[in-house]
Design brief:
Blueprint: H1 2-46, H2 48-55, H3 57-63, H4 78-107, H5 113-150, H6 169-186, H7 189-198, H8 204-209, H9 211-225, H10 230-278
Helix pairs in contact: 1-4, 2-4, 3-5, 4-6, 5-6, 5-10, 7-10, 9-10
Length: 282
């Protein structure tokens, strides 16, 4: 009886060893990722005012030349906290390649060689598409949004009240970061749908049948995530629909490659027994 118990304890200890190895590996990867975020945070906080001034450029473009741009803060610590939020957002943005690399290095040992090669393009495409979404926000979305907000101002007429836009520093930052995240995540649509197609969750026919619903959802999401004007909503909805159509093409391409690989494997499997039979002595 004791031998059986000793054997079970040995099996438990053997199963614990790989788990501890994985936990130590995870700790190492997390430490490198956190170190990258910390270094980027310190650098971004040191240049927080300069970065914030860059984010104000779409506001200046919308206001036009000659207008005095003013942003306010109403609490002593408000702008300091805003700078910390900006530094954290910038740190996550800058450190993302390091974070993604650490995730890949943690996952890669459990993947086959061909799976690693298939995973790398998605790892490269994700930050590129996010940057494209952020660029759309900076050069298109924010100028349009600020133009709309500035159009709501009211000048004093016949002694009436004048209404002027004086945005708070934290609220302006919240608007910019929210739009960057919304567009950045939206631009991940081809990556997400292609990965789902690879694992068999979705397919081309399913997505094609759901095209009309996707268009409706794109406009609903745009209405929720953007300022309440038609131009801004179209600025998000139209790229989303275009990305969905691109996703259809990539999913179809993935399915064709998958079908070709399965057909080649089936032919190889069928040819193996035939070759073995032909080599047998009569």
């Amino acid at each position: 009886m004791s031998d059986v118990e000793d054997k079970k304890e040995d099996e438990i200890e053997a199963s614990r060893a790989p788990l501890l190895t994985h936990l130590m590996e995870l700790r190492t990867r997390l430490m490198w990722a956190l170190l990258a975020i910390l270094i980027a945070f310190v650098a971004c906080f040191a240049f927080a005012k300069q970065i914030y001034n860059i984010l104000i450029l779409p506001y200046e473009w919308a206001a036009g030349e000659g207008r005095d741009i003013r942003l306010i803060y109403t609490a002593p610590q408000e702008f300091f906290i805003t700078q910390m939020k900006l530094a954290l957002f910038g740190a996550l943005f800058i450190a993302f390649p390091v974070i993604a690399t650490q995730i890949y290095r943690f996952v890669a040992p459990g993947l086959y060689k061909n799976e690693r090669k298939q995973f790398i393009p998605y790892l490269i495409a994700t930050p590129i598409l996010f940057l494209v979404g952020a660029a759309v926000v900076f050069f298109v979305m924010m100028p349009l949004a600020m133009t709309f907000f500035l159009s709501l101002e009211q000048e004093s007429v016949d002694g009436g009240a004048s209404i002027e836009l004086l945005p708070k520093v934290n609220e302006y930052l919240s608007l910019v970061t929210a739009l960057i995240l919304a567009f950045g995540l939206t631009f991940q649509l081809p990556v997400v749908l292609t990965l789902l197609a690879r694992i068999g969750v979705v397919n081309y026919d399913m997505l094609k049948r759901g095209r009309r619903y996707a268009i409706v959802l794109a406009f609903v999401a745009a209405a929720v995530l953007t300022p309440p004007d038609i131009i801004s909503q179209f600025a998000l909805a139209v790229p989303t629909i275009v990305l969905f159509e691109i996703s259809l093409l990539t999913v179809r391409w993935v399915e064709k490659r998958k079908a070709a690989a399965e057909a080649a494997a089936a032919r190889a499997e069928a040819a193996a027994p035939a070759a073995g039979e032909s080599g047998k002595p009569a």
